[in-house]
Amino acid sequence: MGVTRLKRKERKNRAIANNKQSAIKDLIKKPVIKNVDIEAIKKEFAEKAKSEKKA
């Protein structure tokens, strides 16, 4: 007896697997968003500006 291959289902399963893999790869490529203290950064810029004006 010959084996019937379900070609459409096979293509669909491969597409689903490839989409999952590509989604994981996309997530790995993106840098992690960290909590940033904006006020501290503003203070650093203000201090640098003051020191540059003095020099």
Please give a structural write-up.
The protein has one domain (7-54). It is 73% helix and 0% strand. It contains two helices and no strands. It has helices spanning 7-29, 38-54. It starts with 6 loop residues before the first helix and ends with a helix. The model has no long low-confidence stretch (mean pLDDT 90).
Lay out the secondary structure.
Layout: H1 7-29, H2 38-54
Average pLDDT rating: 90
Structural class: mainly alpha
Poorly predicted residue ranges: none
What summary fits the major beta sheet?
none
Number of domains: 1
Query: What separation lies between the terminal Cα atoms?
Result: 90 Å
Helical stretch tally: 2
The helix-strand sequence is HH
Helix content: over 70%
Our estimate of the beta-strand percent is under 5%
- Shape from CA axes? rod-shaped
Radius of gyration from the CA trace? 27 Å
Give the total of beta strands.
Answer: 0
How do you describe this structure in short?
This protein has 55 residues and is mainly α. The chain contains two helices and no strands.
Descriptive labels:
55 residues; rod-shaped; mainly alpha
